[in-house]
Amino acid sequence: MSAFSFLTGPTAADSWPAAPVLAGMSAVPVGHAIDLAFFFPNEGRERHDALMAETRRHLGGCVAGIEHSLRFALERPDLTSILAQHPEPVCWPTICAQPTLLGPALLSHMQMRAGVTLLLRQFGQPDDRLDETEAEIFFPADDPAVTESLVALAMAEGRWLALGGEDDAMQPDLPAEHYAELMWTAAACLMAVVQRTSLVDAGEILPAFEKAGWALLAEHDETRGPIAAADRLVRRLGSRADMPELLGAALSQRRFLLFASLAARRLRMDGAHVADILVMGPISELAALCRSLGGSDADYRHLLLALRPVRPSLTDAAIIVEAERYQSLTEGQADALVNALRAPRSLRAKIDHLRRITT
User: Fold this and answer.
1) Considering the chain, what is the average pLDDT of its residues?
2) Distance between CA 118 and CA 355 in Å, rounded?
C-alpha cells in the first residue's frame, strides 16, 4: 500500500476506530484522529474506560460553561432571540458529531486533567497524614500567603472532582491558549446554528460573535485552575519547597498536582508537563524523572503504585519488571533524558519524526 493511500468503502467502514473520523481527517495527524475516534465512538460501541469518560466530562463541561457565557455575552438582540429558540446545548453535540474540531494539544491537556482527577478521586483520603509537627514545618500556619494558596488549590481541585455529566457546565479554568481554542470552537458552533435557522449571511453576524469572544478572552483568568494554584503554592513556599521530605509527603498524601509542581521546580520544568508525564508519559520518562529527583528503588515502586488508577497496565508483574529496569538506570542517563524533556514539545516531536523516517 502506498504511504499516501486512503481507506475508502467497506475497508474504512470496518476499521473502527478510524472510520468515524476519516471524513474530516485529511489535515489531522493519524494518532490524533485515532484518539478522537476512541473518545467519540460510534453508537453501540461505547468504551467503558474511566479515563475516556472523565475526559469527555471535562471537555463537555468546559464547552457547556463557555457556551453559556457566549450566549450571555452576545449584544445583538436578534441573535440572542434566535439562539433562545434553541435553549438546549448545541456546542457539545456539534463537537461530538464533528470531533476533528478539537486540536491535538487541547485534547492532550484534557486527558491530563482527567487523569489527575481520576487519581484524586479514586484514592480518596490520603493514606499517610502528616503529623502536626511536619505540617507546621511544611505549611506554617503563620504564613497567610501559603495558607491562602493551600485553600485555593483545594478549591480548584474540588471543582475538578465535582460530580456531573458531559452536559453539566464546568468552570473552564484552562490555560489561555486552550481556552481560546475551545471558546472560538463554541462560537463557531453557535454561529452555525444561527445561520441555519435564520439564513443570515455570515458576514453580518461574524462581528457580533467575534466581539463576544474577545470579551470572554479579556475576562479569562487562567490562574484559577488547580495546576496554576499548585505552582503558586510552590513559589510561595520558597526554600521550603526544596526540603527533601516534602516531595515524598506530597506523594504519600496523594497531592499529585503539588507533587508535580515540586518536581517541576527541582527539575526546571513546567508543572503541567510533569503532570502530563505522570498521567500519560512513557514509563522511560517517568523513570528518568524519578531518578533525577533522587528517588530510590522503593520510591519508584511507590510512584508506580500511586499511578495505577490511570495506568492499568501497571500490574504487579509489570511493576516488578519496571523496578528491575529502574535499578540499571544511572543518574547520567536520567539527566540526559530530562534535559531533552526540557526542550519545547514541538521541537521534540519534529526531531522524533525525522529520526523515525531516517533510520
Assistant:
1) 82
2) 35
